[in-house]
């Protein structure tokens, strides 16, 4: 995640592995990967937190942004605009 001075998230990058994330982070912030720590939480504890805090199934793709109109996920379209109560993909904007 990229944050502004108030620690508000302004951008996110997705990686397929932790090692890939460390390599990319190291390029931008030399020495940062030495400060990374192993999480003290196991998968069961994390899944319980996600289930209780976000009220979603940890096995589902709950983090995906989905167009409220056509149902396409963020990885299937070029851009999705996210509002407070709905999302709309670039394809639906053009179509509508």
Can you characterise this structure?
This protein has 96 residues and is an alpha+beta fold. Helices cover 30% and strands 11% of the residues. It is built from 3 helices and 4 strands, in the order E-E-H-H-E-E-H. The strands form 2 sheets. A two-stranded antiparallel ribbon has the order 1-2. The protein has a two-stranded antiparallel ribbon with strand order 3-4. Strand 3 and strand 4 form a beta hairpin.
Task: Jot down its keywords.
single chain, 96 residues, alpha+beta, two-stranded antiparallel ribbon, 3 helices, 4 strands, 30% helix
Determine the N-to-C terminus distance.
32 Å
Helix share, percent: 25-40%
Strand order of the largest sheet: 1-2
Could you tell me the radius of gyration in angstroms?
A: 17 Å
Sheet having the most strands: 2 strands, antiparallel
Which stretches of 5+ consecutive residues score pLDDT under 50?
none
Q: How many distinct helices?
A: 3
pLDDT averaged over residues: 85
What is the SS-derived class?
Answer: alpha+beta
Indicate the proportion of strand residues.
5-15%
* SSE topology string: EEHHEEH
Number of separate strands: 4
């Amino acid at each position: 995640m990229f944050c502004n001075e108030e620690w508000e998230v302004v951008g996110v990058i997705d990686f397929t592995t932790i090692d890939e994330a460390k390599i990319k982070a190291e390029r931008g912030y030399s020495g940062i990967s030495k400060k990374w720590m192993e999480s003290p939480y196991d998968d069961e504890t994390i899944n319980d937190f996600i289930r209780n805090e976000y009220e979603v199934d940890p096995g589902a793709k709950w983090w995906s942004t989905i167009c409220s109109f056509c149902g396409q996920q963020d990885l299937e379209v070029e851009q999705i605009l996210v509002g407070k109560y709905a999302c709309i993909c670039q394809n639906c904007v053009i179509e509508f």
